[in-house]
Amino acid sequence: MAACRRDHLDDQLPVWFMRQAGRSLPEYRKVRQGVTMLASCAQPDLVTEITLQPVRRYGVDAAILYSDIMVPLKAIDVDLDIVAGTGPVIAHPVRSVGDLAQLRDLEPSDVGYVTEAVQNLVAELGDRPLIGFAGAPFTLASYLVEGGPSKDYAKTKSLMVSEPALWDGLCSRLADIAALFLTIQVQAGARAVQLFDSWAGSLSAADYISYVQPYSARVLDQIGALGVPRIHFGVGTSELLPAMGAAGADVVGVDWRVPLAEASRRIGPSHAVQGNLDPALLTAPWPVLAERVRTVIRSGALAPGHIFNLGHGVPPGTDPEVLARIVDLVHGEGPTLRRQARAAAGVG
């Protein structure tokens, strides 16, 4: 929490991993056996157990709620499914104003299981913070318009620029749904939130600023009144980092494509950064990987606040012991490496 607020403690460097609760853990696969993704997200006891698994195994400094970006859409009865090996599939894609009717307002009672799970987790976690999360309007919109995953987001981009009124109606509704979904989590006890804009990196900076930033800002602004740190993350967003920070985040998540020091320079001194080890390197020999971890720490030290993380989620085939060794390295060497890097750069 101190790192989120750019008030680092000299003897600590925090670490958690996106997708830390999930596919790489054998205990996760065991409890998920025979249970679909969306069904598992609607069972408070299961959500609690899965969220806690990486905390027990790794000793990470934060838990992130086990859920899915599609949960609030499913909760308002959008006809969708998460198909194994494919991802979210939408039965009736948004192509016209009439298609917006499927996006009714989210009510707290629609996701009572989320409130229950968060309350259970807060009681279990004690001083360790729980991070709530939601999908950002653009990423949710891309699934709704495309009807499922896409490589080029052609339908989404075309609708975005050719039908601005429809795009505004779609993203305004999604922004309010995401904001309420995050608010529900914070009111139940989550101490920070992360807004995932997984596919924003497919856009030019100009299109991001015109067609996406206002809706992410709408979400982050509504959460700002709650007083919790707001983390904003996307993949392939090196050219979007200043605009993502300007959308209202306290912390900007950075993928592996740009060093954290340079990312921080682009974003500005009023934001902490999160990241940014390349997940593909988790299979490298430990001495090589360890030095890459140290490089990330040194670069992140030049930002006003740094939370160590991957540049994207944990891949399914990751050896959990590798993540455990990374946590130990970050906790054991991180504060010293950070102090040394800042001293060498003349940063107070």
Brief write-up:
The protein has 348 residues and is of the alpha/beta class. The protein has a single domain (26-345), classed as TIM Barrel (Alpha-Beta Barrel). Helices cover 47% and strands 12% of the residues.
Q: In the CATH hierarchy, what is the architecture at level 2?
A: Alpha-Beta Barrel
- The tally of structural domains comes to 1
Kindly state the number of beta strands.
9
Level-1 CATH class name: Alpha Beta
Q: Give the N-to-C terminal Cα separation.
A: 20 Å
Q: Determine the CATH topology.
A: TIM Barrel
Question: Which geometry do the CA atoms define?
Answer: globular
- Radius of gyration from the CA trace? 19 Å
Q: Mean pLDDT score, rounded?
A: 96
Describe the model.
The protein has one domain (26-345): TIM Barrel. 47% of the residues lie in helices and 12% in strands. Helix 3 runs parallel beside helix 5, helix 6 (137-146) crosses helix 8 (164-188) and helix 7 crosses helix 8. The protein contains 14 helices and 9 strands. By secondary structure, the protein is an alpha/beta fold. The chain has helices at 26-32, 37-41, 44-58, 71-75, 112-125, 137-146, 154-162, 164-188, 205-211, 213-224, 241-246, 260-267, 286-300, 320-345; strands at residues 63-64, 80-83, 87-90, 130-135, 192-197, 230-234, 251-253, 272-277, 306-310.
SSE layout:
Elements: H1 26-32, H2 37-41, H3 44-58, E1 63-64, H4 71-75, E2 80-83, E3 87-90, H5 112-125, E4 130-135, H6 137-146, H7 154-162, H8 164-188, E5 192-197, H9 205-211, H10 213-224, E6 230-234, H11 241-246, E7 251-253, H12 260-267, E8 272-277, H13 286-300, E9 306-310, H14 320-345
Parallel strand pairs: 1-4, 4-5, 5-6, 6-7, 7-8, 8-9
Antiparallel strand pairs: 2-3
